[in-house]
Amino acid sequence: MKVTVQNKNGLNKDLKVLVDKKTLEKYLNEKYEEVSKTVQLKGFRPGKVPKEVLKRQFGKAIYGEVLDKVLKETTTKAITDNNIKPAGQPKIDLKSFGEDKDLEYIISVTELPKIDLKQIENIKADEYEVTIESKEIDNRISEIAKNQKNFVDVDPAKVANEGDLVAFDYKATVDGNDFKGNEGKNTQLELGKDLFIKGFDKQLIKVKKDETVDVEVTLPENFPEKGLVGKKAKFVCKIISVKKSKEVEINDEFAKNLGAKDLSDLRKLIEKQINEEYKNSLNMITKKQILDQIEKYKIDEIPENLIEQEIKILSQGLKEEDIKLKKKEFEIKAKQRIKVGLILNEYGEQNKIKVEESEMQGEIQKQLRMMPGQEKFLMEYYQKNPSAVASLRGNIYEEKIITSIMSKSKTTKKKVGKTEAEKLIKEQNEKDLKQVKEASSKKDDVKTKKADISKKSTPIKKKTTKKVSKK
Fold it and tell me: What is the second-level CATH architecture of the domain 149-245?
């Protein structure tokens, strides 16, 4: 194979490729040999069909298959040998081809621009660490304690009130008849929450231990026995116990029940938990600082095909006339996004940053924990949508690159209190919201401009109509 660089026009290059007929003949012979082993033709044993017969029967198809294979292999080699990183799919223009002929073709390829990563050494960013005051930890532990119900037995003469825990056995009937699942043992209800059947709780207020009370309720729509939905049921309830909530003592035993070694260990775990709650949001502020600086870096030339692709993404859902009105704006935004992507990608390649399968699985598991009850749906979504998996991989890849840049940049470590952290996050959220509103208002501007154009054009149309009518 002989490759000649014919034309250099910025990032666009034309490579002339010549594959001699001997090389092509070798590929063809290999293919004929492969076909002869599997093809079945009348009068010939498998593997014994002469090449001439195969050529008459399948010559064009075999040559087409071989040509496709040779083009793929030689194109890849030509681009690799000339150290070209393509910015998209190369175009191939066949000049000469055919059996007993040399193959000659032109590869038109746009390459990615060379990226100077020295600029990254000058990046400056703030790295935040939240200092949690002791009272914040106390408040969080107190909240947990309030939600940890501690029910204790009371004097049997005491009656049940809202907030108490009542345990009871029951037997239910509809029109005096039993039904499937009509009995329950040691059923526990916290009065006032109305979690069993609507209106059931209220009828247990003022009951005492060892009492038997009748509760009448209408069976709800989600009742398992569909034939009984909407009917009145009578529950005969034997009260086993009445328990009242007792304030939970915050001590080592309380901490152990929450999985900590002791109260001191629980305080450390709570401090870490609160810090983690702010860490992601504060890291996003740091990431934004880094990306804002990368956006200002210069790249001499950005491939036109990438700009066109990005504009298509940015203008999705808009009408053709709207896209024309915002063309310049889309172009600026597209160049900005491509530039950042090229710089981050080059950094990732040079620093051999990769996304491991374990990291992918870890991120998916993290998402599963955030969507209880939707685990099956989420797993099926990723299994059926390769693009979603690719997007997830891209997000992890970008995060790893940003983290790496952060570790090498001139970061200023800043310790902030909880209040200051909340202020920083609020300010960043307001900035992001402002950008969204500005983008939205620009869309409205497009509609306004269209309306103005329409108003201006109306009288012209009317005048034209009058002239035609006079004639």
Answer: Roll (3.10)
Please give the model's pTM, rounded to 2 decimal places: 0.62
Q: Where in the chain is the domain with CATH 3.30.70.1050?
A: 2-110
Q: What is the 3-state secondary structure (H, E, C) of the chain?
A: CEEEEEEEECCEEEEEEEECHHHHHHHHHHHHHHHHHHCCCCCCCCCCCCHHHHHHHHHHHHHHHHHHHHHHHHHHHHHHHCCCCECCCCEEEEEECCCCCCEEEEEEEEECCCCCHHHHHHCEEEEEEEECCHHHHHHHHHHHHHHCCCEEECCCCCCCCCCCEEEEEEEEEECCECCCCCEEEEEEEECCCCCCCCCCHHHHCCCCCCCEEEEEEECCCCCCCHHHCCCEEEEEEEEEEEEEECCCCCCHHHHHHCCCCCHHHHHHHHHHHHHHHHHHHHHHHHHHHHHHHHHCCCCCCCCHHHHHHHHHHHCCCCCHHHHHHCHHHHHHHHHHHHHHHHHHHHHHHHCCCCCCHHHHHHHHHHHHHHCCCCHHHHHHHHHHCHHHHHHHHHHHHHHHHHHHHHHHCEEEEEEEEHHHHHHHHHHHHHHHHHHHHHHHHHHHHHHHHHHHHHHHHHHHHHHHHHHHHHC
Can you tell me the mean pLDDT for 446-463? 42
Among 1.10.443, 3.40.630, 1.10.3120, 1.10.20, name the CATH number for the domain at 263-455. Answer: 1.10.3120
Name the average pLDDT for the chain: 86
Can you name the CATH fold of 2-110?
Answer: Alpha-Beta Plaits (3.30.70)
What pLDDT does residue 441 have? Answer: 57
Instruction: Give the per-residue pLDDT at 459.
Output: 38
Per-residue pLDDT, 450: 47
CATH 3.10.50.40, the chain: domain bounds: 149-245
